[in-house]
Specification:
Blueprint (H helix, E strand, L loop, with lengths): L5 H9 L3 H9 L7 H14 L3 H8 L6 E6 L5 H15 L4 E6 L4 H11 L6 E4 L6 H5 L5 E4 L9 E5 L1 H14 L5 E6 L8 H14 L8 E4 L5 H10 L4 H4 L2 E4 L2 H13 L9 E3 L16 E3 L2 H17 L7 E4 L2 E3 L17
Parallel strand pairs: 1-2, 1-3, 3-4, 4-5, 5-11, 6-7, 6-8, 8-9
Antiparallel strand pairs: 10-12
Helix pairs in contact: 1-2, 1-3, 5-13, 8-9, 10-12
């Protein structure tokens, strides 16, 4: 990593003043001759510096702009978080730009480049890549949305996902289910939803239940992931004996799975119990209504905004973590196992 005097080195190599370099790289305007512009750009290239390396040092005033990055703005969970963030920052005279990464690390990288350019006073992100060190090196205060591994030194706001997943699994267990399938995100790595799977593993071990790797599904957490999940689950040999309940990584997937099961002639809430996570508005409108774990979406957005405002004011403050508990929402998609009507002798 280059040292903090990079702007001085660029100015020395280009044979211009530090203020000239500042005008070139910060888009602040001002008169810069073509010769000086060419010299500064050549020096930057030779030294290997980018605008990112000294954007924070060049900014002389706030932009009053915040970048919020979410993986799927079409998911009502994220749209509600975004609204809460925007409402909160408007009260502090900030504008919010929303970037939708669509679970793409390439799109996320492009937004990171934008965030490091000096156009924003801070960043709130649910990261696809989970590049914590890269986030901390952007040159702007960052708040992460979503629980990550312990010990990561970055401001974090979200739901206590591991505990929430455990709550879901305990409810299924209390309802008599012992053969529980789980559907998490594609890849299953730390940057997605592995905390749900970690809870699943630990719960099974703690309860003395066998872990069947064929009951762990990795799918896209979207409407399109539902039919894919159901097709794969129903393709299991003798699936009715092997699966009595399904825990989905989010409600979007769970709702899509409900519909796909019904289309396949399998009745959710009777032939198989289904549980989601998030408690989006659609979860109460499905048939049967979806049992799920509720997350405080507006509270998460407001808390993330509050923490980012604090970090903008106190850049050197110690990282904080604020995790909200999930709450069980009991509806009709989970039934007691003894009441399941299908013939297990098939």
């Amino acid at each position: 990593m280059k040292n903090k005097n990079s702007i001085i080195e660029v100015a020395r190599l280009a044979g211009v003043s530090k203020s000239t370099v500042s005008r070139v790289v910060s888009d602040k305007g001002g008169s810069v001759s073509p010769k000086a512009l060419a010299a500064v750009n050549a020096a930057i290239k030779e030294l290997g510096y980018t605008r990112n390396n000294f954007a924070a040092a060049l900014r002389s005033s706030k932009t009053n702009m915040i970048l919020l990055m979410v993986p799927d703005i079409a998911n009502p969970f994220w749209s509600e978080v975004a609204r809460a963030v925007q409402d909160h920052f408007e009260g502090a005279n900030y504008s919010v730009v929303v970037g939708n990464t669509d679970w793409s690390s390439e799109r996320e990288a492009a937004y990171f480049e934008l965030a490091s350019s000096g156009r924003f006073d801070g960043l709130i992100v649910n990261s696809v890549s989970d590049d914590i060190y890269g986030l901390r090196a952007l040159g702007v205060p960052v708040v992460m949305i979503g629980e990550r591994s312990e010990g990561l030194e970055i401001d974090t706001v979200g739901t206590a996902t591991y505990a929430a997943a455990t709550l879901a699994l305990k409810y299924l267990h209390d309802m008599g289910h012992r053969r529980i399938a789980i559907a998490t995100s594609e890849g299953g790595s730390e940057r997605y939803l592995s905390r749900r799977y970690r809870a699943y593993e630990d719960f099974h071990r703690g309860m003395g239940l066998p872990l069947d790797p064929e009951l762990v599904f990795s799918v896209h957490l979207s409407e399109g992931g539902g039919p894919d999940l159901v097709e794969r689950l129903l393709a299991l040999d003798n699936w009715r004996r092997r699966v009595t309940a399904l825990f989905c990584g989010n409600d979007i997937l769970a709702v899509a799975a409900l519909n796909a099961f019904r289309a396949a002639g399998v009745e959710p809430g009777r032939d198989i119990s289904i549980m989601g996570m998030d408690d989006i508005p659609a979860s109460s409108l499905t048939y049967p209504a979806l049992t799920t774990i509720s997350k405080p979406r507006s509270a998460i957005g407001a808390a993330a905004a509050d923490l980012l405002l604090k970090r903008i004011a106190e850049p050197e403050g110690a990282p904080e973590k604020h995790l909200f508990p999930g709450e069980l929402v009991i509806r009709d998609s989970v039934v007691e196992y003894k009441e399941v009507l299908h013939d297990l002798t098939e």
